[in-house]
Design brief:
alpha+beta; three-stranded antiparallel β-sheet
């Protein structure tokens, strides 16, 4: 067998598989999330202080306002801490590969066999990829109740506009991997 025959034989057995694409949050998007929760923390602390001051004028209204301010401050502080951790972490947020579609904001990868359809929504300047699966809620990690509830509406919706890879490249990769599966 000659070298040319071996090259033809190896090319005939190679399948063309699209390469995996990883996308990270752009620095401005991660910073904006941290700023958003910092502003929320400042507002909730102001609400808490307002509840304390209100106690001298209207005592029956002071306790609910103070409690709401404390709870909101604790929640915003927790979310700010998580946003700062995500900002430091340099892991890819969206991974589109042969195994499936993974958006770490949801939790679990959706295998291409379970993907029923891919749709692109472009309201305004943002781009969203809607991944339709038979039961999308099972791909949402535990503890993410709001996203699980949204997924029960029939699809996982990922925002592609905040990524360091163009939305068109991410959509093309997803369609190529879906077609190859």
């Amino acid at each position: 067998m000659s070298i040319d025959d071996m090259a033809v034989r190896s090319c005939a057995t190679d399948e063309v598989t699209p390469r995996a694409v990883e996308a990270r949050l752009m620095p401005w998007a991660a910073t904006m999330r941290a700023v958003w929760w910092a502003v929320g923390l400042a507002v909730s602390l102001t609400f808490f202080y307002f509840g304390l001051v209100m106690g001298s004028f209207v005592p029956w209204l002071a306790l609910p306002i103070t409690v709401i301010g404390v709870l909101a401050a604790l929640y915003c502080a927790w979310r700010l801490w998580r946003a700062m951790q995500a900002r430091k972490l340099d892991a890819p947020v969206i991974v589109i590969g042969p195994e499936g579609f993974l958006d770490r904001r949801f939790g679990r990868a959706v295998p291409w066999q379970d993907v029923a359809g891919l749709e692109v929504d472009q309201p305004g300047t943002r781009t969203f990829l809607r991944v339709t699966a038979a039961d999308p809620a099972r791909f949402v990690a535990r503890g993410r109740m709001l996203r699980r509830r949204v997924a029960r509406q029939g699809a996982l919706v990922s925002c592609l506009s905040e990524m360091d890879v163009s939305p068109a490249a991410l959509v093309a990769a997803a369609e190529a991997h879906k077609a190859a599966a």
